Amino acid sequence: MKFLRDLSLLVVLILPILSIVYIYQYEEEGGKYNWPLIVRESNNSYEVEMNYQLMSPLDVPEKFTILDILILKSGFESELLTFDDLVNIPDSRWRSDFDRRVELVYPQAYNTTEVISALLNGQPIPEKPINGPRVRFVQISEEVCHPEKPLSHKYDIVVVVKSGVSQFKERQEFRRLNKAFTNLQGESLMGLRIGLVFSIGLPRSQQNNMFKRGKYQLRLNTSGGQFLNPKSLDQATAQFEEERKIYKDLIVGDYEDTYFNLTMKTFHSFVWASTFCRKNRPMILFLDEDVPVSLKYLVRVLRSQRREKRNNLLHGVLVRRGRVFRFEKGPSIPKWNVLKSEVPWPFYSDYVMGFLVISSYSNIERLALGMFFTKQFPIEDAYIGLVAAKLNIPVRHSRELLDWKFIITKQKHHLRTLNSKIFK
C-alpha cells in the first residue's frame, strides 16, 4: 500500500487491483477523527461505504416505544407501542395533537443523535444502517468537490440542482444562466465562490410509467412520467451518455431516476455533499430545476448573516402539520400517497418544501448520516423533515433570510418557473 496524507484526506492506493480509497477527516474539540463514510474509487465510479462496528448483543439498548395515551383519541390501555403497532392504528384514531416524540419510534428506533456520535467517535452502534452501508455514484463532478482536483474545493456555496435524467434542456438553461459566476471558470460574487452541480440518476429500465406502491398500481402521467415510454427513454439514454462525456458538473447516482425515487436522489445528494465537499465545508443550496434563483441576491443575503446563523441553516418554505395522503381512506393525491407502513401517523413532521433548501454544512453532515438510519418513503421533503426531527435540528422558513420578490432571477430564461409568491 502507498499512503498520501494531507490536512483533510487520507488516500490509500491498493495494488494491484487499482482501487483507490479516500478516508476523509473531521475536527472536533480534542482532535481529528476519520469521517465514517469511506470512498472507494474504481474505473471512475465511486462507492461510499459506512465504516462501523456493532455493539455486543448484551449492550444493545431497547428500541424506542411510545405510550398509547400520547397518540390515541380513546381506547388506550397504557400500553407501550412499537412502530409495527402504529402501522395498524387507523388515522381516525390518532389524536390531532399526538405527541411528536412518536417520530423517535420510526425505524430505526434508536437515539439517532447518539448513534451518529458513536460513529464519529469510532464507537460501536446498536444495529447496521437500515438503508444499507453503501451508496454508489456512477459519476461525480470534476469541477466541484472532486477528491483528485484541489481547485474543485474552493467554493463557499455549492448549488445542487435535483434534475430529472430527461431534463437536458433545463440543465443547459441553468448552465447558461449561471455560467459567469459558477465553477472553475466563473468569477466570485462579493468574494464568495459558487459551485454548481446537477444530481441525477439513471434512465429507468422498465419502459413505461406504471409503478407498484404496496398493493396498488399507479400510472404517473406528470412529474417525469410523461417521458417514461420506449421512444423518450431511448432518446434520454442517448442524450444522457453524450452529456456525461461533455459536462463535468454531473452527480450520477446508481438508482433509477423517477419521481418515486426522489428520496433516493436526496439521499445520494446529501451523502455526496457531506463526504466529497468536506475540505472547504461550503453552504449547500438544493434546488429543483424550476427554481432559477438569483445568485447575486442569494450571496448578498448570506454575506449579511452573522457567522453563527450561517452555521445553523436549514431553511426553505416551511410546512407545519402537512397532511399525509393515503391510498385507502381520506384525502388522496395519488403521486403523494404513502402507505401506513411508510408513515403511520396522519400528519408529517414540520418540513421545508424540497424545491429550495439551504443548509449549513454541519447540518448536511448530520442529516446525511441520519438518513442511513431512517427508513425511506417517497415524499423527499417530508423525509428530510423527519430525519431533522429525529436529530432535533430545527427547520425554518426561508422568509427569515430571503425576500420572496428577489429570489427568482430577473434574467430572461426558458425555464418553467415556480411563482415566487410561494416563498411568502
UniProtKB/TrEMBL annotation:
BP GO terms, sorted: protein O-linked glycosylation
Cell membrane among keywords: no
Keyword Transcription regulation: no
Keywords: Glycosyltransferase, Golgi apparatus, Membrane, Signal-anchor, Transferase, Transmembrane, Transmembrane helix
Membrane topology field: Single-pass type II membrane protein
Primary location group: Golgi
EC assignment: 2.4.1.-
Positions of transmembrane segments: 7-24
Location of this chain's protein in the cell: Golgi apparatus membrane
UniProt-listed InterPro entries: Glyco_trans_31 (IPR002659)
GO CC terms, sorted: Golgi membrane
Top-rank EC class of the record's enzyme: transferase
Gene Ontology molecular-function annotations: hexosyltransferase activity
Any Pfam family: Galactosyl_T
Family: Belongs to the glycosyltransferase 31 family.
Protein name per its UniProtKB record: Hexosyltransferase
Origin species: Hymenolepis diminuta (Rat tapeworm)
